[in-house]
Design goal:
Length: about 450
């Protein structure tokens, strides 16, 4: 390992520590993430030729520009998807679209609500995806729990439930989509083998977290019924189904057009914006959705967007210098044949770095075999889908669901690390043990 590579790793680790200690340093995590990103890329430029030996010396700088643009494009697609989805849900919420969902889920018992939120998020994330399910459930949660301290506990469980629910569905998480499209897992295989471990990884944390809550909500706090929309019930339902139905339509749009997911989000946002403008046609001039959507866009926490950009681009450096691939190779050499340990460590790493390059690296390193653990629907691939998806719950920045909930509810990295990480880890291990028992009993 070269000196420059060591410096890049040190810069990355130092940046992560500063982000984790945000509550002590009082420095915004977005500032640290952006600095970490720029420092890592700058260090790479000290000796760029060493990392691209197949590129001619006079073409290295041009090649690196293309590489950065490629990674920036991937990151921008994710960020635009996030902003579009958050805006759509804000529009639906601001016009009372989630009222009937609130009415279905509301209860004065704090623990009953916790279980309803967990189960609803778990299954919703398998139908939509963990990111969209998290946004929808947070908006519903805001209507049910006014106390910020208590809402953070529910929000943390939403992250865990969304990632667990996404792991057993071929369309529930970006990593399962990758494995499914690659053909190493099948719909029937992952549903039958991973459903119970994923369920356990949600139930165990929910069981632990319920003891953080007790008693009942005050009627005034929990059952908010004030209407903030001028729309009729029919119009609110139309907005709801356009918004949520549009989010469900995004993966269908992608499969039909082969355009990036954020294009589908922009389509849904455009349609929803147009419809709400029509509904507001007879209202006063300063009450148009043009003004309202502008207000909603201004509510998006840009510091979280900048933070996510910095993290994704910093991880891209680790990918470019071969650290992630080397890590996977090293794991394979040290733990030969013990796929439970290998995938278990990959899952823990997926909470630190983006699970997409980790899974992509695994797909590149491990060839598909005819039989055994590496076969289609084999132990390795199924366990990889579980670990990469559920493992992201251990840190709030370990998954897209965590990052978007962090932005919506202003959850700090340190609070999550102190209060939730160990709980998510216990659930993660419980799911792995459950999968092992399944294989032992059914073998």
């Amino acid at each position: 390992m070269s000196t420059i590579t060591m410096f890049i790793i040190v810069a990355f680790v130092a940046g992560y520590l500063c982000i984790a200690l945000e509550s002590l340093t009082k420095i915004n995590k977005a500032a640290i993430a952006l600095l970490m990103c720029v420092v890592c890329w700058t260090l790479l430029m000290v000796s760029p030729g060493a990392y691209y030996p197949d590129v001619a010396s006079d073409g290295v700088l041009h090649h690196i520009s293309e590489v950065i643009e490629h990674h920036l494009g991937d990151a921008a697609g994710t960020l635009f998807f996030l902003m579009g989805a958050m805006t759509i849900v804000e529009i639906v919420d601001s016009n009372g679209g989630f009222n009937f969902v609130r009415d279905i889920m509301k209860t004065r018992s704090k623990r009953k609500l916790l279980w309803r939120v967990a189960i609803a998020t778990f299954f919703l994330s398998s139908i939509l995806d963990n990111l969209t399910a998290s946004i929808v459930m947070i908006m519903v949660l805001r209507k049910l729990v006014q106390s910020r301290e208590e809402r953070l506990i529910y929000a943390a469980l939403i992250i865990i439930s969304a990632n667990s629910g996404g792991a057993f569905s071929p369309i529930g998480d970006v990593t399962t989509i990758m494995l499914w499209i690659k053909g190493v897992i099948t719909t029937q295989g992952i549903l039958t083998e991973i459903f119970i471990p994923s369920l356990v990884s949600m139930l165990v944390p929910a069981f632990i977290l319920q003891y953080s809550l007790s008693g009942k909500f005050d009627k005034e706090q929990n059952l908010v019924t004030a209407e903030i929309s001028q729309f009729t019930k029919v119009q609110r339902n139309i907005i709801f189904w356009l918004g949520v139905g549009g989010l469900v339509f995004v993966p269908i749009f992608k499969s039909i057009t082969h355009l990036p997911p954020f294009m589908g989000i922009l389509l849904v946002l455009g349609v929803l914006w147009t419809v709400t403008e029509i509904f507001h046609h007879n209202t006063s001039e300063d009450d148009t959705m043009a003004k309202r959507v502008s207000d909603l866009l201004s509510r998006i926490d840009l510091s979280t967007i900048m933070f996510f950009l910095g993290i994704l681009m910093a991880v891209a450096v680790l990918q470019e210098i071969g650290v992630l691939t080397a890590l996977g190779t090293g794991l394979n050499e040290v733990f030969v044949g013990n796929y439970y340990v290998i995938n278990g460590i990959i899952g823990v790493l997926s909470s630190i770095v983006d699970n997409v390059p980790l899974v992509a690296g695994c797909m590149g390193m491990y060839p598909v075999a005819e039989t055994g653990a590496m076969a289609i629907d084999g132990l390795f691939w199924q366990l990889l889908a579980y670990c990469a998806g559920v493992g992201g719950s251990m840190l709030i920045i370990g998954s897209a669901a965590g990052v978007v909930v962090m932005g919506l509810e202003k959850i700090t990295f340190g609070w999550y690390l102190k209060r939730i990480t160990w709980i998510a880890f216990v659930g993660y291990l419980a799911g792995i043990v459950t999968y092992w028992l399944q294989q032992a009993l059914l073998a």
